[in-house]
Design a protein that fits this description.
Blueprint: E1 2-7, E2 10-13, E3 18-26, E4 28-39, E5 46-52, E6 57-59, E7 67-72, E8 77-82, E9 91-101, E10 107-111, E11 115-120
Length: 121
């Protein structure tokens, strides 16, 4: 079993910054992709940013230049530094990891429990 535990989030004024962190634990052999998605109730979950084990990074157009994703493979963690936040960034943010578990060949997707980010105008 693999668990993703998120920290960070909260309430901030427009133009402010927040940092989200996520730690993966459990029976992990390797992690291919780590990243962050966000979701408004009633809407589809959308990509915010991902980073592969090879270092390739993908950002949603709406966050380019404002958000920075990073990962630490020694600790199985991924972080999202969010700067110049806007009210439209308000959402529940979910950590994501594509994990190959020890003793298995397949790669499975795992999600964190979600953390609320609220940006006031």
């Amino acid at each position: 079993q693999v668990q993703l535990v998120e920290s960070g989030g909260g309430l901030v004024q427009a133009g402010g910054s927040l940092r989200l962190s996520c730690a993966a634990s459990g029976s992990i052999f390797s992690i291919d992709v780590m990243g962050w998605y966000r979701q408004t109730p009633g809407k589809q979950r959308e990509l915010v940013a991902t980073v592969t084990s090879g270092g390739s990074i993908n950002y949603a157009d709406s966050v380019k230049g404002r958000f920075t994703i990073s990962r630490d493979d020694t600790k199985n963690t991924v972080s999202l530094q969010m700067d110049n936040l806007k009210p439209e960034d308000t959402d529940v943010y979910y950590c994501y990891a594509a994990v190959q578990r020890s003793g298995y060949l397949s790669v499975l997707r795992y999600w964190g429990q979600g953390t609320q980010v609220t940006v006031s105008s």
